[in-house]
Amino acid sequence: MSANNEARGNDRAIGFSFEFFPPKKPEAEASWWRSVQALSAYSPEFVSVTYGAGATSQAPTYAAVKRLVDETDLVTASHLTVVKATSGEVDDVIRRFRDAGIRRFVALRGDPPGGIGTAYSPHPGGYSNAAALVSALKTIGDFDISVSAYPEKHPESADRTGDIAMLKAKADNGADRALTQFFFDNDVFEDYLNDVRRAGITIPVVPGIMPIQNIKQLKNFAARCGANVPAFVDSRFEGLDDDLPGQFEAAADLAAEQVLDLQRRGLSDFHFYTMNRSKLQIAVLDRLGIMPDDTQIGAAPERLRA
Ligand SMILES: Cc1cc2nc3c(=O)[nH]c(=O)nc-3n(C[C@H](O)[C@H](O)[C@H](O)COP(=O)(O)OP(=O)(O)OC[C@H]3O[C@@H](n4cnc5c(N)ncnc54)[C@H](O)[C@@H]3O)c2cc1C
């Protein structure tokens, strides 16, 4: 597998980013902020905040990224979608976020307004897809731009070729990296990455890693996103229905094992879906030998090295 490194400002063996969603209620805000503070001690390359559908949904994302910019040293990226918005409205959002100090975006089309699985039609006066949004961002500012990638194909794509063609359009328009949908089968990812490289796409493709907070909820969500939950993942949670600590250990082990295996395959950057929870994420980092306030990676525990 081709190397997928990005230049990093430290000498850590792996780099990682944390994805959050914007809290909408005061109690959620407090718990999200505790997670931000706990995870910021691990010096991520950047953190990102997701975005809802439609120009009017910018408020929670804006509030979250503004707080991150104003109150932390974290490099902060805002996700941005084009659903239900004119191109003028999207451009206004970009400028507003830029003026708040945002220099990084995760540029997305977004899910259909009717929900995943329903037909998507672009807003008649809007950007047609994520590739068009990347071009718009390039016109407005000198932003660092991430885009999505789907190792198991986006549910709307007829096949992998069409899917990779869309990724190529996003890269050709100026995307700096792709962050993938979560997946669990590293062979599937490796196969996908080889096809991506064969298509002439050279930007880093950063694996999206989902530590499993709740296997039942995860399976429902994965089915809607077109992500497969292999039997080997399911089996790790067998017999643990009433054992929350056991589920926690299994989830942390699984995510750490996945990262270590991807590292062995030449990957060095990872995007973690934190679900705004720090405890499980920290358990994963701990298993990888990554300590808070320390850029050195230590040896991984023996049981995860094999
Ligand atoms: C890292 C990451 C972060 C995300 N963050 C958010 C977020 O913050 N907010 C949010 O709402 N969603 C988010 N999503 C989900 C994403 O918005 C959905 O998957 C959405 O359906 C597609 O958006 P996209 O930018 O990936 O689309 P695109 O890159 O434009 O398309 C994705 C794939 O779908 C296919 N496709 C698109 N449209 C069609 C069509 N009309 N017919 C056939 N095939 C088509 C393309 O071939 C392409 O491969 C995220 C996904 C990822 C992987």
TrEMBL record:
Keyword Oxidoreductase among UniProt keywords: yes
Keyword Nucleus set for record: no
Signal peptide from the UniProt entry: none
InterPro entries in the cross-refs: FAD-linked_oxidoreductase-like (IPR029041), Mehydrof_redctse-like (IPR003171), MTHF_reductase_bac (IPR004620)
Cofactor(s) annotated in UniProt: FAD
The enzyme's E.C. designation: 1.5.1.54
Keywords: Amino-acid biosynthesis, FAD, Flavoprotein, Methionine biosynthesis, NAD, Oxidoreductase
Top EC class of this enzyme: oxidoreductase
Pathway terms, separated by semicolons: One-carbon metabolism; tetrahydrofolate interconversion; Amino-acid biosynthesis; L-methionine biosynthesis via de novo pathway
GO MF: methylenetetrahydrofolate reductase [NAD(P)H] activity
Catalytic activity: (6S)-5-methyl-5,6,7,8-tetrahydrofolate + NAD(+) = (6R)-5,10-methylene-5,6,7,8-tetrahydrofolate + NADH + H(+)
PANTHER family: METHYLENETETRAHYDROFOLATE REDUCTASE (PTHR45754), METHYLENETETRAHYDROFOLATE REDUCTASE (NADPH) (PTHR45754:SF3)
Family affiliation: Belongs to the methylenetetrahydrofolate reductase family.
Protein name, entry field: Methylenetetrahydrofolate reductase
Organism, scientific name: Martelella mangrovi
